[in-house]
């Protein structure tokens, strides 16, 4: 297993973790500054965050974290399929952000004393930029998994369920056999010799 394969795997993991953080941030960043006196869902508001406008950033952040675990556990074709899913999510997020559907909110309700609308809502860049950065990170991780996923290392047998472990033969070195037994959770002093 080459160092470049390990670096590439950890790059995918880092991209997915950063995508999760960016989506989490996109849900809390301001997407829309609204005129004074605007009432949204019965509350007087001055700004609307991504979480106020859309529901998808937090679930997609959790999906990115789940994809980290899947990237480490899957292999072969399954990893490539995961890569295709990640690229599809990236495209979907990009369409949602650039399509403007996040801004479809009724801002016609005014608080008492604000009968005249003093201005138009103003779109901000931080929230949408964070969502687009997450989409780019999703796409990078997905493309790497489609391209090289079958060759990247995965978790070893130490992390498998006890029933799934392959029987390991003794190496002939008593010290190494004792340490291996301890690593597997066995008491090496009770084994037959």
Concise account of the structure shown:
The chain is mainly alpha-helical.
Protein model, in words:
- This protein is mostly helical.
- It has helices spanning 3-28, 50-53, 57-73, 76-99, 126-148, 174-183, and strands at residues 30-40, 43-49, 122-123.
- The longest helix has 26 residues, at 3-28.
- The two termini are 33 Å apart.
- Strand order, biggest sheet? 2-1-3
* Radius of gyration (Å): 25 Å
Average pLDDT for all residues: 81
Q: List low-pLDDT spans.
A: 164-169
Q: Beta-sheet strand percentage?
A: 5-15%
H and E order: HEEHHHEHH
Rounded to the nearest angstrom, the distance between the terminal CA atoms is 33 Å
How many distinct helices? Answer: 6
So what's the overall shape?
elongated
Number of strands: 3
Helicity, as a percent range: 40-55%
Largest sheet: 3 strands, antiparallel
The secondary structure category is mainly alpha
How would you describe this structure in keywords?
single chain; 193 residues; mainly alpha; three-stranded antiparallel beta sheet; 6 helices; 54% helix; elongated
Would you spell out the secondary-structure blueprint of this structure?
Layout: H1 3-28, E1 30-40, E2 43-49, H2 50-53, H3 57-73, H4 76-99, E3 122-123, H5 126-148, H6 174-183
Antiparallel strand pairs: 1-2, 1-3
Helix pairs in contact: 1-3, 1-5, 3-4, 4-5
């Amino acid at each position: 297993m080459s160092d470049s394969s390990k670096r590439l795997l950890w790059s995918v993991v880092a991209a997915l973790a950063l995508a999760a953080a960016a989506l989490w941030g996109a849900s809390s960043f301001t997407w829309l500054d609204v005129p004074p006196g605007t009432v949204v869902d019965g509350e007087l508001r001055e700004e609307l965050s991504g979480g106020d406008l859309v529901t998808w950033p937090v679930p997609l952040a959790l999906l990115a974290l789940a994809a980290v675990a899947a990237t480490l556990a899957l292999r072969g074709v399954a990893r490539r399929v995961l890569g295709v899913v990640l690229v599809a999510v990236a495209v979907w997020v990009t369409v949602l952000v650039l399509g403007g559907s996040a801004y479809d909110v009724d801002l016609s309700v005014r608080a008492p004393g604000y009968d005249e609308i003093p201005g138009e809502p103003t779109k901000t860049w931080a929230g949408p930029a964070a969502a687009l950065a997450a989409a780019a990170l999703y796409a990078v991780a997905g493309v790497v998994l489609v391209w090289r996923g079958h060759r990247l290392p995965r978790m070893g047998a130490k992390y498998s369920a006890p029933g799934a472990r392959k029987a390991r033969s003794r190496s002939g070195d008593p010290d190494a056999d004792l340490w291996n037994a301890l690593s597997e959770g066995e008491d090496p002093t009770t084994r037959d010799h």
